[in-house]
Amino acid sequence: MQNVELSSGPCGIIPPKRRRKRGRAPINPTAFEGLFLVLVKLRAANARSLFELWFRERGTPVRTAMRRLHDLVDAGFLAHLRLDGARCVYHLTPKALGVSPEIERWARPSLATPPPDRQAMFCWLRSSLWAALTADGWKVGNDGQALYALRRSLIDTLEAGLAGTRDGVERQRMAWNLKGTRECEGLVVRESDLLGARRWRCNACGAARPPGDHHDPVTRERCAGAFRPVPVTPLDIAWEKRGEKYDAMVLFVDNPSVPLDGQLDDVSAVCLGEPLLPIITRAVDPRSAFDRATMKWVEIGRRHAELRKAFARLGRMHARVREIDYRPDLQAYVVR
After folding, report:
1. H-state helical runs in 260-319
2. If you count Cβ atoms within 10 Å of the first and of the last residue's Cβ in the chain, which end, N or C, has fewer?
3. pTM of the prediction?
């Protein structure tokens, strides 16, 4: 009988054949249309925020969600950007902007470029606050429904304050028209109008008008640019409905790409004067540092100081605000 040589491995034992790893199924980008639309709203967001804002409601485990984000980066639909303090954000790529007509309708080309460092930190902080509020049961957005909830919340607060005064009934009768429309100091709230509201902006010249023929606001020449929908309000609004009443507050994260005065004008536009406007404020100043151990600021930068002074002036004027100390541990720059 002929001997057969078996020693192809150590100790004369043939090592078992390794199983080939099963290749992952190719990415179906249309299945992630909702995720891409979240990034259209936020410009960029961190992984944990994307999990809270999109993956969680679909029952996706955290580890699976992180793998899906990694797969989308490998497939070229998302890009990964590292920030200071070991933080990261994801943003869309040109490949993602053409996934569906809905994304093409809402997205602008600049969303497919990496945001500058300060803008990226603004996106990190904003998305983190959106996710924290969502996890706490709030709805967050800047559409007509969010704006309607904010105005109804202010109206409910004002009505409650008027009801206890001697002339409250008369003042209410004169101030409000309760037949489907409520008016106060020139503010008109029609649920049907706000919930179906949509604003438009030209991709070429920036004109803010309904779609159709228009002229460039600078050159006055006829513009052939296409209109895209934009948020109804530049403010982020967190809201919830409790019975027949609305509870809402504004989320103000200082956008370093927008002048501070312009952002404050947006806040003033929704104030009714009498009720205090609840607002969460955050600065994105690289010269500011927050100590999480003592929950105090150890350094305040110039832009941050200007923001504080601006809100102090705002409170002394017609637009009265009440700052909410929500999740003070969520800050842009912190001391470990």
Report:
1. 260-269, 302-316
2. N
3. 0.80
